[in-house]
Design a protein that fits this description.
heterotetramer; A: 147 residues; Aldehyde Oxidoreductase, domain 3; B: 5-stranded mixed beta sheet; globular; Mopterin_synth/thiamin_S_b (chains B, D); Beta-grasp_dom_sf (chains B, D); Molybdopterin synthase sulfur carrier subunit (chains B, D)
Chain lengths: 147, 77, 147, 77
């Protein structure tokens, strides 16, 4: 067995709906798939103490994040009978209303795709060294904290 | 011993040092003690270290030229 | 309180990735949304006793299905703090590899969107009078059964 | 009593009758008994009825002009 190549998950800037559509369309030739589960993270215009979030600026310790994701990917494929799994996380400044995370899992029957998708989102948020800086309309900022 | 320091997120606003020449520091526990004495604000931030791109789970040795990353809680996604 | 209008969920033919992209894009102005959960059902080219499924032909007792869905929608909105929910089920002949179901839920935080999406898919399959006829390449057919 | 019959899915291949003139049939339990005698294949199919667009949960009365739908297990999605 050869070790699989480490995949990049990072994209610069927001994830467009056209990119998502293209990813979905590419799976129409995989006729063993019965269900796709997709999670999209969208930047929220939270109001915090009277200040409105206008964007989140994402940075990452990229090499370490990709290594972690590689390990998580292997564990998820071990645990669920998936046909495929695609993960994209934005870096840089993503405006409120834009998509910053795209997790996409597919399987023959629906449950594995759904459960793997949820688990990947949880693990990505907890285990990948990525940081979001919430930029307020007035130019100030605070560091995002995941719950 | 020379340590290369990378810091992220809110810790990058606090620790801007890129290189540290440290004696009497053998492992990551020593290093954390040193950090928290030098930057008392770190006592109020949960953080993790990575040494040479390996996230530190338990205390581990440092060597000359190690790259130590100081990482506040992750908030991707 | 006025009774909300019964929404149509049925579309004729397959659901295109462009339609899905458009639905996603429409949500960029809803800046209280933090997470979208999407489930897509894709027609599988199952092999059954040597015959390959080439398409599924969907029919429904439409009025009854829409009434049922209306009730389910109200119960899901009661149970989860959702921003919005969109459901599309294909009728007619959908070829293997094409999308026949699109469930799309959104909320401020991720968990309600994920859990509502899964619950809607389960309830739709169990409670809506819709039938899929699996058409084989050789022209024969059998009636699909949900698990 | 005149009953309008609609059937779906595999049952539509079995029961093609659109209208039934029935006496001695007062409710859905009677109707099911009639159906299963007339179409013995129905004994091997789980099915539900809907009367005037209401899915039948427990036995209910039929009236002249009722529309009865005969529905095999659902398989949407």
């Amino acid at each position: 067995m050869t070790e699989k190549k480490i995949k990049n998950i990072f994209v610069n800037g927001a994830i467009s709906s056209a990119f998502i559509a293209d990813s979905i369309a590419k799976h129409s030739s995989k006729k063993e798939i019965g269900g796709h589960s997709i999670f999209l993270g969208q930047v929220r215009a939270d109001e915090i103490e009277g200040r409105l979030v206008s964007a989140i600026d994402y940075t990452a310790y990229e090499d370490v994040a990709l290594e972690q994701m590689h390990k998580i990917r292997a564990e998820i494929f071990e645990k669920y009978p998936l046909t495929c799994m695609h993960i994209y996380q934005s870096l840089g400044t993503i405006k409120a209303g834009e998509i910053c995370l795209f997790v996409f899992t597919s399987s023959s029957h629906r449950k594995p795709a759904m459960h793997a998708c949820e688990e990947v989102v949880e693990r990505l948020k907890a285990e990948l060294p990525i940081w979001g800086k919430e930029i307020f309309e007035n130019g100030t900022h605070q560091w995002k904290e995941n719950k | 011993m020379e340590i290369e320091v990378i810091s992220f997120g809110k810790i990058a606003e606090l620790i801007t040092t890129k290189k540290l020449i440290l004696d009497f520091i053998l492992d990551t526990d020593d290093f954390k003690k040193y950090l928290e004495e030098t930057y008392p604000e770190l006592n109020n931030i949960k953080y993790k270290l990575a040494v040479d791109k390996q996230i530190v789970q338990t205390n581990c040795k440092l060597k000359d030229g190690s790259v130590v990353a100081i990482m506040p809680p992750f908030s991707g996604g």
